[in-house]
Amino acid sequence: MLIEQLKSIVGPKGWTSDPAAMAPSLVDWRGAFHGSAPIVLSPASTDEVAAVVSACAAAGVAIVPQGGNTSMCGGAVPDESGQQIVLRLGRMNRIRALDTENFSIEVEAGCILEHIQIAARKAGRLFALSLGAEGSCQIGGNLATNAGGINVIRYGTARAQTLGLEAVLADGTVINSLRSLRKDTAGYDLKQLFIGSEGTLGIITAATLKLFPDPGLKTTVLIAIESSGAAVRLLSHLRRSIGDSIEAFELISGYVFGLVDRHIPASVPPFATEFPWYVLANTACGDDTGSLEQALQQAVEANLAGDAILAKSAAESAALWRIRHSIAEAERAAGKALKHDVAVPVSRIEEFLQRGDRLLAELAPGAQLIAFGHVGDGNLHYNVAMEPGSEQAARVTEAIYALATGLGGSFSAEHGVGRLKREYLVQYRNESEIELMRTLKRAMDPLNILNPGKVI
Ligand code: FAD
Ligand code: MLT
Ligand code: ZN
To answer: 435 CA distance to ligand 3 centroid (A)?
Structure first.
């Protein structure tokens, strides 16, 4: 009965129950979480989403919103019950409006991130959110997870780049907060409830996003360094020397460089000598690379950097970033790993990495560390090549999370909580925070039909 009603809401192009067509929606990107569903829906408009949610609410049936399904924590996959309906947003992929003078763009939730970047660039503007999955993840998923990526140091996370939002509540009501203002203190900022809530408080259907002037030519530099601590000191030095033009500042261990080299064709690391760590950075200093080169020279003299290569063309820059953006794929190809997406204050990164090494040596001697991350904003991917699920694996994860949170950090920096990290949320957020989260969830989704079993 409900299924027939849903089919008629979305029309023949908007649903499938064919096992082969549903399959990609029933497993996460890393292949760690498998679920099942009676039907996968692909609505084409906000009205259809609202009608679907309202029908599901009346029947008490759960909905799992899904964008590009690139979640790193099983957030977009239904559970094994076979009762949860998957709601793919991919057909809602229109760019509704682009206002060059207001530096804003209004897009539907199913727009692929890269398509928004391209539309902005064509208009001489920059949409600054950028991450390895940008060719397949969708803006709705980016906002639902408050995605970070490589440009946070200069432009902030997805949250900081959002001006307005449209969402469907758990009873099917449409909340239209699609304003495009930089200042607006009229009551609570409702869009913030949905950003980072991983589909548990509402379904995002559209957003108004902030654009920036296109900085034009970027300079990409790959810097070899002797220690992770040097990366943080190098960042301070560069910020003092060339100011705010650093857009991205990524740390990659020598082992991770080798991993990409082994698993991703045509991604040859450019240094002859192997270094323990590398930094890949982008600066928006246009044609004038003089001050950057001078600052790098000073860094080499002060032993903050071992060697540095400046990309000489857009193609060289793209090749370097291909290496960075291929890390997750190389890691997946290499086998199972414990993923630890932690954040610490930038000033504590060195201490985190040194103490992390000691913990690993003690708890999992010989286990391979896969360390890389967005060091410019304090977010490290401190992954360990180990089969998840064992007691030893749990001890490693516990120790890493305790270390990060003990240093004033977080166990979940940018990937979200999803299904993977639920138990840690109650452990590392204080009681009053958890109680307020539960109160919000109860108030906004009293029937618990929006992505149940995720986050909280
Ligand atoms: P999905 O995986 O489909 O969904 C993610 C969560 O959001 C789920 O809980 C889902 O239910 C919910 N959701 C999806 N759409 C909606 C909607 N419209 N309304 C409400 N809820 C919704 N993340 C980073 O932050 N930084 C990175 O640098 C980064 N790099 C990555 C690189 C690779 C190669 C991969 C595979 C992933 C990477 N990720 C990164 C993780 C992931 O891409 C991001 O979290 C991304 O933002 C998810 O977008 P998606 O459309 O794939 O969402
Ligand atoms: C990245 O920074 O590449 C992503 O967050 C993906 C990952 O952690 O594997
Ligand atoms: Zn990341």
So the answer is: 29
Tell me if 413 sits within 8 A of 148, measured CB to CB: yes
Q: How many angstroms does the Cα of residue 267 sit away from the middle of ligand 2?
A: 17
Tell me the per-residue pLDDT of 45-61, one tens digit each, with 9 for 90 and over. 999 999 999 999 999 99
149 Cα: distance to centroid of ligand 3 (angstroms): 5
Q: Positive or negative, the Cα torsion across 309, 314, 320, 325?
A: positive
Among 334, 335, 352, 355, which Cα is nearest to 343's?
352
pLDDT tens by residue, 376-393: 999 999 999 999 999 999
Of all protein residues, the one whose alpha carbon is nearest to atom 41 of ligand 1 is 71
- Band the pLDDT of 347: cuts 50, 70, 90: very high
Higher pLDDT, 255 or 289: 255
Q: Measured from the CB, is residue 327 less than 6 Å from ligand 2?
A: yes
6 lines ligand 2 (CB under 6 A): no
Q: Is the CB of 149 under 6 A from ligand 2?
A: no
pLDDT digits (tens, 9 = 90+) for 297-346: 999 999 999 999 999 889 999 999 999 999 999 999 999 999 999 999 99
Phi and psi at 62, nearest 5°, equal: -80, 150
CA-to-CA distance for 23 and 277, rounded, in angstroms? 39
Q: What is the mean pLDDT of residues 368-377?
A: 97
* Per-position DSSP letters for 314-371, written without gaps between them: HHHHHHHHHHHHTHHHHHHHH---B--EEE--GGGHHHHHHHHHHHHHHHSTTPEEEE
Q: Is 137 in the pocket of ligand 2 (CB under 6 A)?
A: no
415 CA closest ligand 2 atom index = 5
User: The tokens of 6 are what?
Assistant: 């849903």
Query: Angle at the Cα of 363 (from 357 to 369), degrees rounded to 5?
Result: 40
203 lines ligand 1 (CB under 6 A): yes
Task: Please report the pLDDT score of residue 335 as a whole number.
Answer: 96
* C-beta separation of 55 from 98 below 8 A: no
* 107 Cβ below 6 A of ligand 2: no
The residue written with tokens 């919000």 in the block is 440
